[in-house]
Amino acid sequence: MRRHFIWQARRYYAQVAGLLLLGSLFGIVMNLTVVLPAVLLGRAVDAALAASQASGAELVAVRRSLYAAAALYAGGMLLHGAARVGKRWYLRAALRRTVFTLRMDALRGMLASPLGWLRQQAVGDLMARVLGDTELFGSGFNESTTEVWDTWLFSLTLVGTMLAYDVRLTLLALAPVPIAFYLAYRLRNWVRGRSLATRRANSALTQALQEGLTGLRLLRLLGRVENSVERVDALSQQVAQASLAETRLQAGLQPVYTLLVSAGIVVIVWRGAGLVEAGTLTAGSLVGFVLLYVRFITRGFRLPLFFNRLQAAGVAWDRLSPLLPAEAAGAPDWRNSFRPLYLRPVPAPTEVAGPPSAALPVALEGVSFVYPGSGHPALQDVTLQVAPGEMVGVTGPIGSGKSALLRVLLGLYPVEQGSVQVGDRPVESWSESERARLLRYVPQEGGVFSGSVEENIGLRGGTGVFADQADLLRATSLDGDVAQWPAGLETEVGEGGVTVSGGQRQRIALAHALATESGQAPAVLLLDDPFAAVDVATERRIMAALRDAVGSGAPPEHRATLLLCSHRLASFPLMDRIIVLDGGRIVAQGSHEELLQQGGLYARIFRAQHALQAEPEELP
After folding, report:
1. Pick from 305, 338, 371: which residue ends a domain?
2. pLDDT at 7
3. Closest CA to 550 of 354, 359, 421, 355
4. 394-425: buried (b, 16+ CB within 10 Å) or exposed (e) per residue?
5. Domain co-membership, 254 together with 388
6. Strand residues in 317-437 grouped as ranges (E)
7. Which of the listed residues 338, 353, 386 is the one where a domain comes to its end?
8. What H or E segment, with its residue span, contains residue 79?
9. Residue 453 structural domain
């Protein structure tokens, strides 16, 4: 049996248990005192009527009763108002804290998700879940906390007091209310369906906006701005239609519920007047009863709406739950659960003792790999051993499996067959902290983020095997660029590195991979076509510097096991060994000279590239 989403989300309720407790106490006081104004006003009316008929000494006593009734009425209103303020403060603080924590957990869960799963998700849909669905879940959280006191206890208190006045009159007045609950139950799937349609339409629109804004410059250059606008307009229409359909349902149900809840006023007027005329109910009591019923119907329609809104929030939870971390939150800190402004910190990754920062061997044994969602194997029965500190170049035609080989070595994708080991351990057993410390990866896109050049490189954390910043910048051929930038290392690279060239992005990413905190080279350095946007002369200069700094030309304690995947072979003569891939298989391997003598695929590619006399300048 599927558990209700409130039970599934209980750990988030536990983190704000103190705030919920305080808010609930104030809510109980507020809703128990909600009857005081009506009851005390009724008594004041009876006291006023008695004062109008009294005389002499009796008049003095009656007036005192009238003054006392007025004072009690004012005191009751003050107590009710103070409890209302306290309830709103603590319960709303619990709501905002929970939404914030849920949003951070969703982001943390996405970052820890398998890349195979993330590869199949639309970025816009994930954004819509993290932003929009957390807010919709917040409405369900509000219904299950605030509305329990503001509507349910409020209504039950009023109904209980009405029963104290007259049981039969109360039951007759509330007879249509169960019909409203039955209607809410019957419409539950309809509500969920329209809410889900709205969330999906919003996700599609967010995806289109994200893609359009990210590629805005390219859209303008290609003259496709109008097409993008038309797509967003069409998706906006779908969102509007889905939202209107959901709103029509919710707005249409409210007057129906209100009519059913308030229909009893006819019975009260008819039956109550007879009771007053018969003398079984005083005029003041009837006034108090009517006031109680009027207060009830002002919120009574929310009783069946309560279930409909929980159903909509359940849709948001179903969309959010796959993103959340699988591990339990642990025992809540009760002291922090009472603090309105406390925000639970993101847990730091557990540091696992790993091998020292020295070059590690790499071994693949019979590895076959297929990208998730793709029926074509990217690697087929690949067996490869790389010695510690060895520099290996990997090449082959487009789609031969070069990038797949590095991603398998990073342990970010599971393999279909075979085993992958780095050092003496399977790579999938490495923790995130170990992978970040010992395995460094430079993607072909450059991999820079908004911030300064210094922040992207991480110079404040260290310069690795290089003596200082100047040596690191020279080794990656960034020294000339930094000297030309007016702000130097403080130059902002912009979103995705838009303010720097493609070659500069790649060299910044390479400098980041080399700027380790330990003062040593990374254990394994994986380079995925990192020089595609760099001219050939610069590529040779960088690879010669890497060979001397962390390659076979460096002292043994400073060496890194280096794998360079590239379709461009300008720096491959510097490699200790070269692997040639084709169709996901290793078709040749050996030194540069050996492969040239064999006259195979490598020799043909190298000679064709070498024949090109003009060396293209660095791409923008």
Report:
1. 338
2. 81
3. 359
4. bbbeeebbbbbbbbbbbbbbebeebebbbbee
5. no
6. 362-370, 377-386, 391-395, 417-422, 425-426
7. 338
8. helix 57-112
9. 362-610
For residue 367, tell me if it sits in a domain.
Answer: yes
Both 325 and 421 in one domain: the answer is no
Confidence of residue 421 (pLDDT cuts 50, 70, 90): very high
Helix/strand/coil percentages in the chain, nearest 5? 65, 10, 25
The 8-class DSSP code of residue 346 comes to: P
Sheet order of strands, 377-386 included: 377-386, 362-370, 417-422, 425-426
Residue 209 lies in a domain: yes
- In sequence order, the β-bridge partners of residue 582 are 585
Residues 438 and 506 occupy one common structural domain: yes
Residue with tokens 């969602």: 373
Both tokens assigned to 484: 């030309």
Q: What's the CATH number where 502 sits?
A: 3.40.50.300
One-letter identity of residue 159: V
Query: Considering just the CA atoms, what is the radius of gyration of the chain in Å?
Result: 36
Tell me how far apart the alpha carbons of residues 217 and 199 are, in angstroms, rounded to a whole number. Answer: 29
DSSP state of 152: I
Does residue 131 share a domain with residue 76? yes
Token couple for 161 = 């007091």
Tokens, residue 66: 């009238």
Angle between helices 283-300 and 265-278 (to 10 degrees): 170
- pLDDT on residue 110: 85
DSSP of 215-260? THHHHHHHT-HHHHHHHHHHHHHHHHHHHHHHHHHHHHHHHHHHHH
Model pTM? 0.69
- CA–CA distance, 396 with 137 (Å, rounded to integer): 50
Mean predicted confidence (pLDDT) in 384-406: 91
- Per the CB < 8 A criterion, the answer to whether 395 and 605 are in contact is yes
Q: What is the pLDDT at residue 613?
A: 41
Strand-pairing partners, residue 589, are 579
Q: Do 223 and 171 share a structural domain?
A: yes
- How confident is the model over 452-483, as pLDDT tens digits? 888 888 776 677 778 778 888 888 888 888 88
Same domain, 253 and 380: no
What is the spatial distance between Cα 281 and Cα 247, in angstroms, rounded to a whole number? 44
Contact predicate 132/138, CB 8 Å: no
- Which token pair is 456? 């992207």
- Residue 348 is assigned to a structural domain of this protein: no
Burial 45-60 (b: 16+ CB within 10 A, else e): bbbbebbeebeeeeee
pLDDT at residue number 580? 94
CA distance 379 to 292: 75
Nearest alpha-carbon partner for 402 in 372, 444, 437: 444
Q: What is d(CA 441, CA 529) in angstroms, rounded to the nearest whole number? A: 11
Which CATH number goes with the domain that contains 160?
Answer: 1.20.1560.10
The beta strand positions in 483-608, using DSSP E, are: 524-528, 561-565, 577-582, 585-590
Tell me the average pLDDT of the chain. Answer: 82
Angle at CA of residue 198, ends 193 and 201, nearest 5°: 125
Assigned domain for 245 exists: yes
Tell me which DSSP letter residue 337 carries.
G
Token pair in block for residue 475? 């080794």
- 441 membership: H or E segment, kind and range: strand 439-442
Together in a domain, 317 and 430: no
Q: How many domains does the chain have?
A: 2
Residue 620: band (very low, low, confident or very high) from pLDDT cuts 50, 70, 90: very low
Confidence of residue 364 (pLDDT cuts 50, 70, 90): very high
Q: Are 184 and 262 contained in the same domain?
A: yes
